[in-house]
Write a structure and sequence with these properties.
This protein has 223 residues and is of the alpha+beta class. 30% of the residues lie in helices and 21% in strands. The longest helix has 28 residues. The chain is elongated, with a radius of gyration of 46 Å. The N and C termini lie far apart (196 Å). About 12% of the residues have low confidence.
Length: 223
């Protein structure tokens, strides 16, 4: 190709038109990405997270919709002093600044108290171990009941006056009581023959009322 022809194609409107169009496309992409990300991330928008604690869940949902935020229940708890379906806790905490559409996770109060299975502590642990395990699960313990047996050894659990066993489901709001060994044992001679006062009376009444009387020896006659 001659240099004249090359120069003619280099300065042609067709080539420069394509170059200009490419430059415009690049600029549009750059501006589109910049402003598009600002719109997508809600750049410059700050919404204060409201305090939802102790608020009814439905009212909390309406408030979140008005603020442009989302609410999701991720856990439940139980507080007998608060009404059912009220918010117990939230994340993020109140007062933080978030963007539109941010998700607020809440813990809602359950209508029923939680219930758990009694762990395997009966005749398997000391009173200290059983107490720590049961209280960590949320159970309320009454003063222990002491019975004859090894000191501080758990022999049973009672709930409302009846025996419960490992695996039984019991509400944490229902107090339970440990049956614990007192450290004393029954005497080994409990099977020996003992005579009570009543038995002695019967034995005495069955005795013969007459006793053999032996006459005194006769006196020898004087010569």
């Amino acid at each position: 190709m001659k240099s004249k022809d090359f120069f003619r194609k280099f300065v042609s409107a067709y080539l420069w038109g394509h170059l200009f169009a490419m430059a415009v496309v690049v600029l549009l992409v750059c501006f589109g990405v910049k402003y598009g990300l600002d719109v997508y991330t809600h750049h410059g928008e700050d919404i204060t997270v409201p305090d939802l604690q102790k608020m009814d869940y439905k009212k909390a949902c309406d408030l979140m919709a008005q603020r442009g935020l989302q609410i999701v229940v991720n856990d439940s708890g139980y507080n007998k002093r608060l009404p059912a379906d009220c918010v117990l806790a939230q994340t993020p905490r109140p007062g933080l600044k978030v963007k539109t559409g941010h998700v607020i996770y809440v813990t809602v109060n359950s209508a029923l108290s939680p219930a758990f299975a009694i762990p395997d502590v009966i005749d398997n642990s000391s009173v200290r171990e059983a107490t720590a395990k049961l209280m960590s699960m949320g159970f309320k313990l009454l003063d222990p009941e002491y019975v004859t047996g090894e000191k501080d050894w758990v022999y049973g659990i009672t709930c409302r006056g009846r025996r419960v066993h490992a695996g039984d489901i019991v509400s944490v709001e229902t107090p339970i009581r440990l049956v614990v060994g007192s450290g004393t044992f029954e005497d080994d001679y409990e099977d020996a023959d003992f005579v009570t006062a009543d038995e002695q009376f019967v034995a005495d009444s069955e005795m013969d009322d007459f006793q053999e009387v032996t006459a005194p020896p006769a006196e020898e006659e004087q010569p």
